[in-house]
Amino acid sequence: MNEVYVICSESGDEYKLQFTTERSGMIADEILDELQNSGIEVVEVGLGRNKGLNVTSHLVLAQIEQCIAEVVLNHSNVMLVFFCDFISLLPSMRRDVSVQEYRSRLFCRMFERYVSQHRIHEVCNKIFVVEGVAENYFFHVIAHKDLIGYADIVGNSIQKDFGK
Predict the structure, then answer these.
(1) Buried residues in 66-75 as b, exposed as e (16+ CB within 10 A)
(2) Residue 90: which residues within 8 A CB-CB, separation 6 or more?
(3) What is the pLDDT along the chain (164 residues), one digit of tens a residue?
(4) Backbone angles phi and psi of 70, in degrees to 5
């Protein structure tokens, strides 16, 4: 799978949301091969801003939520994996919360709201926290409930191999 969505804000900012099965090394090849042999496709999600510097609006966040939900709902054998980055630092009201943790919490709230509003009960979001030297790293695995048991395999692989 290699799907790309371009989302434009009302203020002219442009975002790229990419879903890919190309292996980045974030998850061990042995784990990906094992899951693939079980009929499960692990898809890494990338989100970046291509243009603009404005604050990301709720409308853009809703479009991102919708794209993510549609990919999972339209592909019952897919597990989405994404890493909350710390690039493009955000101003934070709380100094005790890292940028990654802030983004992870924001995504969780957005995703929970979206699935609740759309009465989507068959999809789960599981968070994995990897302890880093300076701060923790946050990874999310989103999949149908019947695949969420496999999320631990992916999460444990990330925790074991992260930084190698």
Answers:
(1) ebbbebbeeb
(2) 99, 102, 103
(3) 899 999 999 999 999 999 999 988 888 899 999 999 999 999 999 988 889 888 888 899 889 999 999 999 999 999 999 887 655 555 555 667 888 888 888 889 988 999 999 999 999 999 998 887 777 889 899 999 999 889 888 888 876 666 54
(4) -65, -40
Helix (H, G, I), strand (E, B) or coil at 118: coil
Query: Which of 41, 50, 45 is closest to 6 using CA atoms?
Result: 50
Minimal CA–CA distance to 80: which of 142, 158, 2? 142
Q: Is 114 helix (H, G, I), strand (E, B) or coil?
A: helix
CB atoms near residue 119 (< 10 Å): 6
As beta bridge partners, residue 5 has 17
Tell me the CA distances in angstroms from 132 to 56, 63, 107, 138, 162, one per residue in order: 28, 31, 21, 10, 9
Q: Are 40 and 74 in contact (CB under 8 A)?
A: no
Helix (H, G, I), strand (E, B) or coil at 16: strand
- pTM (two decimals): 0.85
Asked if residue 17 lies in contact with residue 45, where contact means CB atoms within 8 angstroms, the answer is yes
